[in-house]
Amino acid sequence: MNRAGSVVALSVFLMINLSSDGVGQNNPALRLQCDWLSTLDVATMRTSPTSGSKLISVEVLQGRAGRLKKEGLGAEFAAVVTDEQIEAETEYQMGALRHRERITINRYTGKIDNFIVIGKAELVHHGLCKQLPGRMF
Q1: How far apart are CA 22 and CA 18, in angstroms?
Q2: Class assignment of domain 23-131?
Q3: Which of 3, 80, 95, 125 has its CA 20 to 30 A from that of 62?
Q4: What's the whole-model pTM score?
């Protein structure tokens, strides 16, 4: 293969790899369906089964900095996205109660932990996330 053919082949290879399902500049939105399995009440240290799911979207803004959005919540999370995990935090006010949330998602296993502090109450929701295809309805 001549030099020009090698350059074209390398360019095509890089375009295919950079446009794969990962999070990055060419594919900024990672869409996840996260199903809740259990909830820990930190005050009582009791774990109970939990059902339900949330759509979570993660966008990489620049470098490792990102933004996470959770379905049904108007507040955005400031996120740090690495190859191994996504960590995101937010604070917001609902009525007289201050809410703090932290989400950690393992990018290898899909395990999600959602730590929520509402006033003095602390809960940790545990679950699993799976990536949704890039197409929308």
Answers
A1: 8
A2: mainly beta
A3: 125
A4: 0.75
